[in-house]
Amino acid sequence: MTEQPAKNHPIIVAVTGASGMPYGQRVIETLAESGRKVIVVVSDHARIVLKEEMSADFLKVDHPNIQFMNYRDIAAPIASGSFPTAGMIVCPCSMSTLGEIAGGISRNLIARAADVTVKEGRKLMLVPREMPFSAIHLENMLKLAKIGVTIMPASPGFYHHPKKIDDVVDFVAGKILDHFGIEHSLYKRWGTNEFNLEELGTF
Ligand SMILES: Cc1cc2nc3c(=O)[nH]c(=O)nc-3n(C[C@H](O)[C@H](O)[C@H](O)COP(=O)(O)O)c2cc1C
Considering the domain boundaries, does residue 49 fall inside one? Predict the structure, then answer.
């Protein structure tokens, strides 16, 4: 039987070496500020991309709700299905990590935690970033989507009229958090001029 995640179970956010570090950072900080416990794992290659994109050695996230786990610590709590979580987000997700997860290869804590998330019937979301996608990438994504993994490409919309990069980042982060039922005001929802969302009771 698939377990029901409790609201106090932590959400895992893994950051891998695809472009899009600001997306991962915004997701982590918004989750933590919403009151959720967040377990963060950063891959070795993500650190190289972090340096390129944010001129930093580490993610700039600092909140008591955030706990880091070591990418190489295959004995960390999230490597076991007996440790309860409310699911996992890989953001951004490289094609390499996506391929590992699709192939069931668990040689680091991110791939292992994703494997555990799938086998325990918990929510797994991947936020891939690559241009263009090859047939290998697409087949891997289709394989995962067919078993219930959410493929949430980092493809920002422009119908909310972004004025700065933060607006674009917020749109993608907001769409990710919507799927985990996290309240936020990162972007203006389509149709909210005509409808009062509180009355609709959607979020
Ligand atoms: C600056 C930079 C940007 C990259 N962007 C991407 C990307 O957008 N998507 C991708 O799949 N790989 C990208 N890569 C390649 C991955 O980092 C590489 O495949 C790495 O092995 C992924 O490892 P990981 O999944 O363990 O983090 C990028 C590498 C660098 C240095």
Answer: yes
